[in-house]
């Protein structure tokens, strides 16, 4: 069953459209990763999903019901952890207990707070008595997560939860979030740049650019400067004398996106007969990541200053004998490059 | 310079000997200031919160007016309150002229813009993630308002400290609205003005030191409160 159904949502800040989602469903109990550059709409989408704001147009259904901010269906059941969490100017205990107190769930308060702090690895005696200013950045992030976990939420939305913490804290935050799913069936939606979250932990990875979702992934988003090429084409000059050829954009669009499903990887020496429209880029593998299904591999290929990410069957990666630093070629058709 | 030294010894003597006239002025000062602060905090904190938290038409204009009122001269407030409370004034029948309550009304007018302005500034300066966090933790609108106010409590204490200092040390309102009536409306500041006119500088300095001691006691109490919360 889908816990979220997002239909024809357009969201504006003033005159600027920041989000445009035609159709997105999030299954209950799943882990969904949101990737995309800064300003792509990840945080806005999470805020809308947390029902902190209403979408300007369209509807977000929660459990098949249209709900609004502050409605009882979502209060304390859906909770968001910001990238820079705010700790109230109180003790750790008061911070973690806040959500329970406002819901008047005061029974076994001490136990619930202790359990939540244990989940995030803050087990030191008397830790709960510390003041908000006595915590490191990683501890503050974990206390903020504990405050959400104490609620035993149905949906936990995490906005770059590990972006500004050390590796140990990042691991503890990840483990605590996964435990929430195991223990209470919590649905997780995580905005992250962390590959481990995206491809190893998440059931689904969604890529956002300019407020739009690319369900099949975002091969590479390329911005200018551009120069005019032959005919109606534009050229992006890359390092190492390589050139990316793209069609002319419609007005108002400024980012060219390479669809990973339309890219072909070949090994140097295995060059196929290129038809007249196809172009080729030389690069090398920087990262290989086996996805949770065990059948596909995420491959990151560095082409000059661009990083192209695509999915490949693991058998194909094995056939190509791909390894980090292996030289590869990417074949693309410029007419298939879209602008956003 | 002798009168300064004399002032210190007289201040000590006045307090130790529990001089009735001095104690009467201290009590009048505390009563007027206490009433004025209670009224201005009760009115000013909610108004300041609304001004800092919500967006509404004319908000900027209201803010400019409140900030301008920070510069109100005490003698002008005294004059206006006197005009309102005098027998021929619109509230002449209230009998508040030359009373502690009358002085407190004037002092509340003096401190209200300070409380409103500094509370609004504290609320505006609150972290932009606060509301998101409180909503995320399940707080309703009323709980968000109460928690936001609690989060900016140090700013509100600072507003109270500033306003208390202004109210305790003003002389224009106390003199014009209170009339400086011995045993009745004579406050420490009006007593200082009187003693200075009489050429009793030592006594004036002694009373000034007593006033400073009161201010010290108020600030020590507020600092203690700030540490505890």
Description:
The complex is a heterodimer of chains A (340) and B (229). In chain A, helix 2 runs parallel beside helix 4 (137-149). Chain A has helices spanning 42-49, 92-102, 109-119, 137-149, 167-184, 195-201, 314-320; strands at residues 2-13, 16-27, 31-35, 57-62, 65-66, 78-81, 155-159, 187-191, 204-209, 212-214, 220-222, 227-228, 233-238, 242-247, 256-258, 264-266, 279-290, 296-303, 306-313, 327-332, 338-339. With 340 residues, chain A is α+β, with helices and mostly antiparallel strands. Chain A has a six-stranded mixed β-sheet with strand order 6-7-8-3-9-10, with helices on both faces. In chain A, strand 13 and strand 14 (242-247) form a beta hairpin. Chain B has 229 residues and is mainly α. Helix content of chain B is 78%, strand content 0%. Chain B has helices at residues 2-16, 20-53, 59-69, 74-85, 100-124, 129-136, 141-151, 153-169, 172-178, 188-197, 201-228. In chain B, helix 1 packs across helix 11 (201-228), helix 4 crosses helix 5 and helix 4 (74-85) packs parallel to helix 9 (172-178). The chains are: A alpha+beta (340), B mainly alpha (229). At the A-B interface, strand 6, helix 2 and helix 4 of A face helix 6 and helix 7 of B.
Number of contiguous helices of chain B: 11
Distance between the termini of chain A: 32 Å
Main interface: chain pair and counts: A-B, 24 and 18 residues
Question: How would you describe the oligomerization state of the chains in this entry?
Answer: heterodimer
Q: Overall 3D geometry of chain B?
A: globular
- DSSP strand content of chain B: under 5%
């Amino acid at each position: 069953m889908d816990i979220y159904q997002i239909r024809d949502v357009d969201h504006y800040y003033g005159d600027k459209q920041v989000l445009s989602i035609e159709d997105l469903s999030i299954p209950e109990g799943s882990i969904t990763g949101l990737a995309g550059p800064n300003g792509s709409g990840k945080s806005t989408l999470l805020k809308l999903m947390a029902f902190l704001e209403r979408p300007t147009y369209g509807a977000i259904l929660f459990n098949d019901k249209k709900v609004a901010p502050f409605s009882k269906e979502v209060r304390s059941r859906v909770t968001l952890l910001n990238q820079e969490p705010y700790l109230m100017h109180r003790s750790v205990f008061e911070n973690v207990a806040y959500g329970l107190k406002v819901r008047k769930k005061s029974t076994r308060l001490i136990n619930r707070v202790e359990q939540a702090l244990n989940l995030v690895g803050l087990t030191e005696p008397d830790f709960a008595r510390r003041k908000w200013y006595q915590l490191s950045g990683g501890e503050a992030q974990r206390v903020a997560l504990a405050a959400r976990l104490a609620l035993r939420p149905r949906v936990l939305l995490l906005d770059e939860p590990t972006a500004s913490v050390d590796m140990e804290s990042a691991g503890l935050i990840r483990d605590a979030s996964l435990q929430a799913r195991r223990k209470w069936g919590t649905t997780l939606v995580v905005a992250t740049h962390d590959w481990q979250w995206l491809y190893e932990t998440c059931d689904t990875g969604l890529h956002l650019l300019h407020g739009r979702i690319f369900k099949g992934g975002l091969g590479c988003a390329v911005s200018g400067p551009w120069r005019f090429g032959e005919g109606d084409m534009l050229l992006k000059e890359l390092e190492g004398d390589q050139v990316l050829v793209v069609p002319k954009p419609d007005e108002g669009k400024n980012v060219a996106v390479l669809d990973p499903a339309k890219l072909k990887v070949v090994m140097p020496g295995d060059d196929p007969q290129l038809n007249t429209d196809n172009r080729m880029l030389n690069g090398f593998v920087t990262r290989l990541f086996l996805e949770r299904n065990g059948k596909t591999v995420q491959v990151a290929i560095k082409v000059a200053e661009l990083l192209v990410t695509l999915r490949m069957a693991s058998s194909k990666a094995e056939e190509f004998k791909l390894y980090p630093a292996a030289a590869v070629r990417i074949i693309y058709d410029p007419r298939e490059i879209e602008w956003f | 310079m002798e009168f300064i030294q004399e002032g210190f010894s007289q201040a000590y003597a006045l307090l130790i000997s529990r001089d009735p006239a001095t104690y009467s002025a201290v009590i009048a000062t505390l009563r007027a200031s206490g009433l004025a602060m209670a009224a201005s905090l009760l009115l000013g904190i909610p108004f300041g919160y609304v001004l800092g938290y919500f967006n509404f038409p004319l908000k900027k204009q209201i803010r400019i007016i409140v900030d301008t009122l920070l510069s109100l001269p005490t003698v002008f407030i005294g004059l206006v309150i006197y005009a309102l409370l005098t027998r021929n004034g619109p509230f002449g029948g209230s009998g508040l002229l030359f009373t502690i309550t009358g002085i407190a009304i004037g002092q509340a007018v003096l401190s209200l813009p300070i409380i409103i302005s500094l509370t609004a500034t504290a609320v505006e300066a609150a972290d932009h993630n606060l509301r998101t966090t409180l909503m995320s933790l399940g707080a309703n609108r009323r709980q968000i308002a109460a928690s936001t106010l609690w989060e900016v409590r140090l700013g509100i204490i600072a507003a109270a400290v500033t306003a208390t200092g202004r109210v305790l040390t003003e002389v224009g309102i106390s003199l014009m609205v209170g009339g400086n009536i011995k045993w009745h409306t004579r406050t420490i500041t009006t007593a200082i003005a009187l003693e200075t006119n009489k050429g009793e500088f030592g006594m004036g300095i002694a009373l000034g030191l007593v006033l400073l001691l009161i201010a010290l006691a108020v600030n020590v109490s507020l600092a203690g409160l700030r540490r505890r919360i």
